[in-house]
Amino acid sequence: MGVAESPALEVQGVTKRFGDVLANEDVGLRVERGRIHALLGENGAGKSTLVNIIFGLYQADTGEVRRNGEVLNLNGPRDAIAHQIGMVHQHFQLVPVLSVAENVVLGDEPTRHGVVDLDRAAAVVRELSERFGLDIDPKSIVEDLPIGIQQRVEILRALYREVDILILDEPTAVLTPQETNHLLNVLRGLADTGVAVVFITHKLREVMAVADEITVMRRGRVVGHTVPADTDESDLASMMVGRPVELRLKRTPASPGDEMLTIADLVVDDDRQTRALNGINLDIRAGEVVGVAGVEGNGQRELVEAVTGLRGVVSGSIILDGEEITGRSPRQISTMGVAHIPEDREKFGLIGAHTVADNMVLNRYHHRPYSRHGIRRPAAVDDEATRLVEEFDVRPPNIAAMVATLSGGNKQKVVAAREFSHDSKVMVAAQPTRGIDIGNIEFIHRRLIEYRDAGMAILLVSAELDEVLGVSDRVAVIYGGRIVSCEPAEGIDRDRVGRLMLSGADG
Amino acid sequence: MKMLKPVAVPLIAVGLALGIGAIILAVSGANPIEAYGALIDGSLSSQKTVGRTLEKATPLIMGGLAVAFAFRAGLFNIGGQGQLVVGGIFSAAVGFGFEGLPWIIHAPMALAIGALAGAAWGSIAGILKATRGAHEVITTIMLNFVALNLTDWLASNPWKDEGILSRTPAVEESALIPLWGSFPTGFLVAVAASIGCWYLLERTNLGFEIRSVGLNGDAARYVGISVQRIVIATMAISGLLAGAGGAIETQGVIGRYEPGFNAGLGFNGITIALLARNHPLGVIPAALLIGAMEAGGSMMQFNADVAPEITDIIEALMLLFVATPIVVRWFFSRQEVAEVSVTAGWGSS
């Protein structure tokens, strides 16, 4: 086989083991020049391990990586870059206080008389930015830029190093629909210039929209290779999960009852004492899901914290089933019937070093039967935890395990089990499926609908537009601390919602 | 193995410290075997020396508990010394201020007032943290100075004994915590306090809240635990323990309050808590070890002609090795060691 026919990158028989965990097992991958190759799989399927091996961050136990037919032996990102392999990590590796141009050239600065030539750097960055339609001002300071633009800076940084293989690890996880579309266009443009793009994701819509080739991984192995023309979203989902999955949530229309949560003219400040909510009005009835769609940072967090009592209110009122809850403590509000799945389960939802059992009763350990006269009753806690672990299918089903040892999806099941299991009238669910697997997303969504049908009023806050549209009965769009639209989810125009999220106006 | 690891780290640290101590002894011209022999002789050889070891260990247990307990809520109480001297002088005041009370009332009352004074002192830092966000490391250090000067002033002005020395009068006999043969009764109080702390932390709602706040204050707040309340309560209990330590020292060893009698006792609590990995029951063996070294140190000076400071060096080395997981990790060769994060609470929240 001649060199000209070798693919840009070929992985053969790669196996990588971490302790007892087989992260990659006999993995093969062929990445062609000028093609977008989607690497699809659930969390823990081994995608990140694989690209980290390609990028030289890990060494494979067995197997090899070939670049244009030659075996690579990389000992770190520096080697990878020397072989024109670039990577955009999920967490950006940018210096916030430096300019775009400085970030791009950092580590490989153009110099003039031994001094960094920032003008030349800016010129190069501007030229690259224009060539690939990235639309970035090289002089802007990175920390002032939105996430979507910061990501383009990362891409620029790779392009500056003249990579011809670009790996992106879950690049769309943090983007709005519009930013995602722009990114996908940029990737297409890159591929057209001959760059091989490896694109890690678990979002099926994007894969179908942009990929030329699709490799699906599950439990460390490659379980399928296909092209969009030969497959569809539900096929891919089944491949990823290993069983048939319902992508479209089966749900009956809501039959809303009385008003359960009424938010009137709510004004709330953020941590820096600037207005985060400018007079929000929203009501949720029993037996209905109201979804709040919006780009993160438009007041969602403050809304959730105000309703759950975690944040003080400047003015306005929040009424739970006829009773004013504004100004009450989180514990009082919880006892009165507001359950809360917080947006960041690791930080706010769980105590990692406590057992599964203790986390299951974290909101009611002080009630009977879990304690009596201030003395804990471990047997009662364990009974309840055992029941919940079974009901919510937490794996492994070990109530004595530290929660920190569970996977993201199972951690979220612990939070959901705890919050759903107490007698609540209202559920505030913030980003309830962020970063968890399709199988677990399906599970959590089904639970939300089940509890809705049992009469709970559910406030769903999510940056995932598909989630808001798929689960909610009504969709409210939040922008700049105001609800700019609130309408039934049935027949809603996805693009219009996207525009509202981005500009607060429909047009 | 899993169960052994928490114990293994301090044990290895102690072993390393003693080993290096032996080298230092040898270099300084002494015979290490003879010196360590004298150390054991002075601390464990007879009823009397064992009694002295227990007596030395008692305030160390209380000081260690104070630090370890606060640590479980993620708080670093450096103020054990201040809380201890405040507890000491108030128990002395009750001890000499009341006459004719039966022992069964007087001694516990003096102990309780001393402990409560320590609790009040500790809770100042707790209140400052809960309401103003002032870091407890800073405030407890500052409160140490306030406490030392306050007690000096009390002992040289309103509560001064007759004579030229700045010290309180001797406490009434009815306020003393007596020796039982050569066994100091105060040691039993300290052991009871350890068990009490363990029970409180592991079996009560308050303890669960304290541990939850220490492990993840954000999540604790989100599920409705009042972090402010827990911070104040924890600092009060921590101060209570240190204050009780000062009271036991006053009523069981010194018999009055003398400025400087207990210099460093509160600070040794940090060493003890580190050695015990912040476990309330682990504090007992850790304090016994340090207590034995202090009790035997003078014997080492007499019999082996070694400066007693060598025990301070060995203690410092133990602390160093416990706080430096990398050294211990090296001992486990390439095997993974459970995170030796003794300072997990530092600066949290």
In short:
Chain A is of the alpha/beta class and 507 residues long. In chain A, 33% of the residues lie in helices and 26% in strands.
* DSSP strand tally of chain B: 2
Query: Which class of secondary structure composition applies to the elements of chain B?
Result: mainly alpha
**Assembly type of the shown chains?**
heterodimer
CATH class of chain B, anyone? Mainly Alpha
Work out the helix count of chain A.
17
Per CATH, what is the topology of chain B?
A: ABC transporter involved in vitamin B12 uptake, BtuC
CATH-defined topology of the largest domain in chain A: Rossmann fold
Overall helicity of chain B: over 70%
Description:
The complex is a heterodimer of chains A (507) and B (349). With 507 residues, chain A is α/β, with parallel strands linked by helices. Chain A folds into three domains: 3-241, 3-Layer(aba) Sandwich (Rossmann fold), CATH 3.40.50.300; 248-337 and 423-507, Rossmann fold; 351-422, no CATH class. Chain A has 17 helices and 24 strands. In chain A, the strands form six sheets. A six-stranded mixed sheet of chain A has the order 6-9-10-3-11-12, with helices on both faces. A six-stranded mixed sheet of chain A has the order 18-21-22-15-23-24, sandwiched between helices. Chain A has a four-stranded antiparallel sheet with strand order 2-1-4-5, with helices on one face. Chain A starts with 8 loop residues before the first strand and ends with a helix. The relative contact order of chain A is 0.10. The mean pLDDT of chain A is 89. Chain B is 72% helix and 1% strand. Chain B has a single domain (29-196, 227-306), classed as ABC transporter involved in vitamin B12 uptake, BtuC (Orthogonal Bundle), CATH 1.10.3470. The longest helix of chain B is centred in the middle third of the chain and has 30 residues, at 103-132. Chain B is mostly helical. A two-stranded antiparallel sheet of chain B has the order 1-2. Chain B is built from 14 helices and two strands, in the order ααααααββαααααααα. Residues 333-349 of chain B have low confidence and may be disordered. Chains A and B meet through α10, α11 and β20 of A and α8 and α9 of B.
